[in-house]
Amino acid sequence: MTQPTLMQQSRPKVSEIIVGDRLRPVSKAGVESLIASVNETGVMKDAIHIRKKKDGKLVLIAGGHRLEAARRLGWDEVEAKIWTDVTDDWARMMEVDNNLAGAEMNALDTAVFLAERKRLYEKLHPETRAGVAGGLARQGSANELGSFAAATAEKFNLTVRQIQKIVAAGTALSRDEIRHLRAAKAPVTLKDLTEISRISEDQERSMVVLKLSGGNAKSAAAARKQLEAEEGRTPVIDPMKQSEAEFRAISAAWKRAGAAARRRFVSEEIGQEGGVE
Questions:
Q1: Is the pLDDT of residue 58 over 60?
Q2: pLDDT band (50, 70, 90) for residue 219
């Protein structure tokens, strides 16, 4: 694989930089903090990172808050490091590491970013996946391999156990669930995320997330207790909320399913419904 190359450090036009799919939206507080710093010091401390694609387009890799601050300040140009020969996975890994190393992130964003880092790490280092590493361990060569948890724990000064718990929480959530938790009235804690990661049923997890995001429960554990208390009686259910929860449960299950399972579901379930008169 061709290694990414730092082509140059220059000042491209802010209007020419494309912001694609990002792991998290920029926060108002983060951008306003940067603007205040620039107004006080007169400079943007760090350059943003951009990839130059073969068609000449400039796409943001890392520095979303800095780029947005530059836009709001009305800057025509911004200091940037421009990379070539960049793959999508490499660009995403840089985005992840840039945020984990330098940004002030809440528990939810940390879980989301570490889960994505694990996915990318194992894609770039397939020999570290659990099944492969286990087989190599029996052959006595596992010690020669790095592991995602150990490598990441060392990089970010966390314990392996902390990394494993955070990643489990981030991996359990669908994009819709992440969006709802970001909108929660109270910040979601790592304890909440760890509790959610233990829920194996998609519908229960979706209901817990909705209770948290709507402010109907103070914690994920409290939300689960509420659901348990509701079992065995016939509560008055809001049809719209019930439909929303059921839809999200089905949507989450569909996104996690493989192609073969999806085809079978369409054939057996949707096909049967289509034949009912």
A1: yes
A2: very high
pLDDT at 253: 81
First to last CA, the chain: 56
- For 220, other C-beta atoms within 10 Å of its C-beta total 26
Instruction: Match 């879980």 to its residue by tokens.
Output: 111
The C-alpha atoms of residue 164 and residue 42 are separated, in whole angstroms, by 41
Kindly report the number of other CB atoms within 10 A of residue 170's CB atom: 24
CA distances from 272 to 171, 210, 246, 253 (A): 33, 31, 20, 20
pTM above 0.70, yes or no: no
Separation of alpha carbons 170 and 115, rounded Å: 5
Backbone angles phi, psi at 18, to 5 degrees: -95, 130
The architecture that CATH gives domain 1-104 is: Alpha-Beta Complex (3.90)
For the chain, the structural domain boundaries read 1-104
pLDDT of residue 133: 43
